[in-house]
Amino acid sequence: MIKAIKRSPIIFYIILTLTFVFATLEMLGGFRGLGSLEAMDQAQIARNISLGRGNTSNFIRPLVFNDLANASGLHIDKSEEELKHIILLKDDMQFKLQKEGQVAASDKLSLPYIANTQYAPLYIWMEAGIFKTLNILGADLWANMSDGQMIYTADRILAILSCLFFIASVILSYTLLVRLFDPTIALFSCIFMIISSTFLSYAISGLPIMFMLFLFTIACHNLLTAIEKDQSKESAMLPMCIVGICFALICITGWLGLWPLVGLLVFITYHFKSKPIYLVPIIVSVLLAISPVFYLNYQASGSIAGSAIYSIYTSFLGDDSIVYRAINSSDVGMQVGTIFNTFFTQVLTRIEDLYDQLGKIILAPVFFLALFHTFKIKATQSMKWALLIMWAFTFIGVSLFTPIDQLSSGQLQLLFSVLFSGYGLAFILVLAARLPEKRQKLARIMVFSVVLIFTALPFILTVPDKVAIGQRLMESGRPLWPPYFAYGLNKTLDENTKQNDIILSDQPWAVAWYANRPALWVPKQMDQYKKINQLLNLKHQHVAGLLVSPSSIMDEPLPKVQQTYGEFTPFMLEGAIVDITQSEKPVYITDVAPSSLPFANKLKKHDARIKILKNQLIFYRNEEE
């Protein structure tokens, strides 16, 4: 790695400077707060850890709630009297065990914060460590946002963290590409990465994918070293150990990291046929990393996979809300035929969108043409097949578990983009070298120019706006509205609810993060909410009200809104209807809604509705009697 920098110090500093400039520009002008459900969800779990609440979540999914209730023996379909009796018996047993000096079994449904078994833990614990350190140093991260502040301070911290890993990944990618090819190919491949709008979006997303890219690039460095050592008849055990550690860390950062791991094991088995011992450090490292996590998941939920197992439904159905707002997985409606049909549809769609999936770097898909070319450097040739096999398994895993066009850490094809583009560029330059000598220079210039323009164009078109916004709103920032209004959630909900009050919402991930309140996702049906609320009351938990945001109706036709929210639809539509009718006489449809609506008898009170942002972000209060 150091040798690669010494070979081309000027180019290295050019790459470093460009990365800082583009990342800074994106942070100042493009950052509007966390825009991903997953990023907010992981962040609020990290905050709970830093505040001493353990690996718990403020985000209560009905499906996960029911699973934990069942694991605790509290089946929500039972009557109130039966549930009371079960809770009393459990409390008596706990008391007796504690009195006898024995360790009482923990309640799997420990409210108001529930155990996190949704995400791999490494990046969350890293975020928690940063939060804890900053608080120890005197930064009050969890104070209410001040007037005029539009972006949550912790959002900026998380964006800077992922941005730093992006910068480190660019530097490592450059040194790796120098080893594989030469400084020119390394330079342009990294520039493609730096100016890619997709990479820049992920760089400030607060998601762990840039950290995974950082680890993956280190793993590829050491895999290349192992290949070179094996070719020179030296032992490659040390670099293989490092590869194993990196993939172990990738797997406990995002569970989809298990798919490229399988590809890696297949490649090692094939390439190092005479030395199967090289598989051992990788398998042992991964098992040592994931075993404690699986054990903790089992302790918390009764399942080693926890609630992450439902992500396969999310991919096939294309929407988290369809899955997690149901109470039972049987209500989701997945059939074997649907699984196969949807999987093949996903595969075909991803093949069609390969350019987007690989970070919108135009030369990345050319990698597949480069497979037909034999590179002179043996290690470069071998590394080509390693990347192909790892990508192939990653492609299958992403198609199974990650919805298309969703900003998430599951889009692992990005890990391969810059290396693919390096191979693609090398292949194009080989073809250009076969032209007559007079045309070679022109061909090279045209290749670099066209690729740079097409890769940079999406970002370049936004630069003037980002510069203007960065200058005008550097301190306050511009909120990601709609659908998120951090200031309103953070301050208004804090002033009108208690710390452990549960808030029913159509964007509970945002409530959990910005308001620091337990948030229940609006269930699919009213009777499901009533069953959940009954158990919450028996566990001495209070639903403080319902927060309705544009998340419910943004870009959705009315029939879809009605199908999605059922009897909750009047709440979702009321703000829009008030906006339409307020010039004459505002119509509040929940005033005439059936009594089956939650806290319907309180809706006619003058202070029942708190309009956080006009009629588009409304909190319906449920004051205790």
Terminal Cα span: 67 Å
What fraction of residues sit in β-strands? under 5%
Q: Report low-confidence residues grouped into runs of 5 or more.
A: none
How would you characterize the largest beta sheet?
Answer: 6 strands, mixed
> What is the helix content?
55-70%
Q: What's the count of strands?
A: 8
Shape: globular
- Our count of helices gives 27
Radius of gyration, in angstroms, nearest whole number = 27 Å
Present the secondary structure layout.
Blueprint: H1 2-7, H2 9-30, H3 37-50, E1 56-57, E2 59-60, H4 62-71, H5 80-99, E3 114-115, H6 122-136, H7 153-180, H8 183-194, H9 197-203, H10 209-231, H11 237-251, H12 258-271, H13 279-301, H14 311-317, H15 320-324, H16 336-352, H17 354-357, H18 367-370, H19 378-401, H20 414-432, H21 437-460, H22 463-472, H23 486-496, E4 502-505, H24 508-515, E5 519-521, H25 526-538, E6 543-548, H26 558-565, H27 569-581, E7 609-613, E8 617-621
Parallel strand pairs: 2-5, 4-5, 4-6
Antiparallel strand pairs: 1-3, 6-8, 7-8
Helix pairs in contact: 2-7, 2-8, 2-22, 3-6, 3-24, 7-8, 7-9, 7-10, 8-20, 10-11, 10-19, 11-13, 12-19, 16-19, 23-24
